[in-house]
User: What shape does this take?
Amino acid sequence: MPESIVTILDVAIGGLLLGGIYALIAMGMSLQYGVARVLNFSHGEFIMLAAFGTFTLHTVVGINPLLCLVIIGPVIFLIGVLLHRTLFHELSVRAPNVDAYAASSILASFGLLFIIQNLALMGWGADYRAYSYLNFGVNIGGAVFSANKLVILGFSVAIGVGFYMFLARTRIGKGIRAAAQDPQTASLMGVNINRVLALCFGFGAAMAGLAGVLYSMRIPLNPSMGMQYTFIAVIVIVLGGLGSIPGSFIGGFILGIIGEIVSYFDPSLSLAAYYLIFMILLLVRPKGIFGK
Amino acid sequence: MPILEGEGVTKYFGGLAAVLNVDFAVEQGEVYGLIGPNGAGKTTLFNLISAALVPKPGIIKFKGVNITGKKPYQICRMGIARTFQTVKVFGNLPVFENARLGALFGTSTGMSATDAAKEAADLLDFVGLSAMSATPAKDLTLANQKRLEVARALATKPEILMLDEMMAGLNATEIAQGTELVNSIRDKGITVFMIEHVMKAIMSVCDRIMVLHHGEKIAEGTPQEIASSKKVVEVYLGEQDDAGS
Amino acid sequence: MDTARFTSKGFLIPGIIGLVILAGLATLPLYGSLYNVVLVTTILMYAILTVSWVMFSGSSGYLSLATATFFGIGIYISTLLLPNTGALLPLLVVVLIGGLGSSIIALGVGALTLRLRGIYFAVFTFGLVILVLELFNWWEHSVSHIRGRFVMLVDNDIIYFIMLGIFVATVLTYYFLQRSKFGLALRSIGENEEAAAHIGVNVTMVKVITFGISAFFMGAAGAIWATKLTYIDPYVAYSVNYSFLPVLMAIFGGMGQIYGPVIGAVIFAYLQEKFQTEFPYYYMLSFGIILIVAILYLPNGLVGLIQKIAQRLRKGGTGEEYADT
Assistant: This one.
């Protein structure tokens, strides 16, 4: 296969992989912001936490990182539910109006960011850590791709689609969608709003956690790595359209591909590119692609 | 020349036309009413005039001058003031400050602090809120907050005052007081453009009324003409029974 | 302006206390140890950041997380104009340029992002620190190929006095801004932006200019702080902590009165200095917890809490004082 085609395929797969991770992170944040109405600045910290958790479970206990998905995912889910039940619910009760709640929940999540980041610093130190898993090459039609890339891509698409099905088909999923559209009517129709909000927050955190487990196979880890993903998640949910879960999914892939293309030319400029996209988006079409 | 005109005023939200091709002309000194069922586009039209939104397409003229595309603060300083359907007082500031700020920022020529204070005092007296000057605005009853919004708007020395459902949520006595207030404002020489659901009030105080339905103008005329228009009655049947008229 | 205000009792007493404290601070290098001078310099730096942050975010209600960015820009301007090879310009001029440089960037960022809803503004400013960090890293890595810069040494007492001067300027600006027509406009924006716009306030201009003014002091503080750090790289200059700590200090201290943010800054800057070396991450962790506790249980900060207690102790306090801020 000619060199240029391989490069293009490599960038394409890299973009899809990055996109898959972004899609999961964004879907998670979309749940928290779109339904629970919390703009969670500590969202990226759950990615970081899950990544470090996988690192430790794999290097110390020898557990397969893919298995960590089912170990760490639920743990992060529970942490998310607990956080909402205690902190964010309490804030919503005390807030005199919607705007006050928005402000206090953002600030509280900012505090959470520092708590989680410093816990990680205490646990793992400030140095970069990494582990390797499935790092061998897979030959597809004469081109060689890293196995973990394909595995991550596969899993993130599967999780994303799976979660979408969950929202569309199950009773809990329908309750979530109802609560997202109109909390008052939903609660009149028998949906336990407080439970739904806490679940959403938990699912949102869990999505971040799953993304963290997957991505930890490929990147070096560091306690301050989370913040950029929080920022990226917001860009994606705006790109995809606020309140649209499928929008976040697709938006994630779009941004991931753009990011990979920019990275090909200069890796350290991808964040600048995202920032530029964000600015243009907000000035020209804040509704995003699928926004209502 | 009409003091406020609109030509082909349109606004789409997504695929839905909230206001569609509305022409209107408010004459100086009159009390002009705007009615229509819920969702007819009345507040949207106000928002388009006050520049909270931009018509696309459409033109709005004030005293013959095209004001489309200007910013809200410019519209205010030119002489158009408004109140809001959901009351927007400065809650943590005292009643007096609320009124004073209108005079301080909203007039076309600017006012000194002392003059603004005097203006505020006069207007609070005019709307009957002098006794509450020091109370934080958020502690007022809804009816009083609405009066405060009127005082604040009047403090900007407007030539035309737009009232958005000033009577909503008021009891019969308060409605009567509100009607009296509108008449007093007209007596000051200020044109009044008012959205109302409370039929009794609007019919008794307006010189002319425009009716919107699904964003389009379906009728315009004197209160008698509107009341006897079959089209309007059809559109309104059922709506009239709530709204405490 | 209302001169009667200056002689009223409510002004005289805090005013005298303020002057006494100022006199004590102004003479500190004469009687204080080196350690104390450096400690107070640090406290003043955080107080500047906190008061400047409140200047904009406290009144307008727009949460800015860009403090670290403007502080860092000031630091980098120092590296350019005060390299260890020798000053290119007088120290005070550099401090001024540090402030102006940050101001100009703030005006640009503000003009672009302050027409958006508050939530987008918060996210933008949050991302700004990360972005600028990345850009400077990229520059040093790919363009200049020089890792880190050195700033020239300046006497600790001089650093102290300049920081004190910036602090006084910040507080005075905040004080007069609050009481000016401009400050009133900003307040009305914080109360209800749409209403403010409709009574004649040019909301975008007021927000952007205030944002720019607040960034000036952050940049100036950064410029002089660089001479204390001496070694600067992007991670040193652009740290999210400098966005987080002023928020914590302001919320904990309380934003109702001028001295609230200052008290908050004094408390946490002092705690940070004490614990930074021994328990580096524990104290930051506890700060995060304190922020959350403050948000939940101290809606008006420490000062607000004290005022409430005082009001309750006052005989028959019906709260006739009108919100005097």
Observations:
- The radius of gyration of chain A is 19 Å.
- The longest helix of chain A spans residues 3-34.
- The interface with chain B takes residues 292 of chain A (CB under 8 Å).
- Chain A has one domain: 3-284.
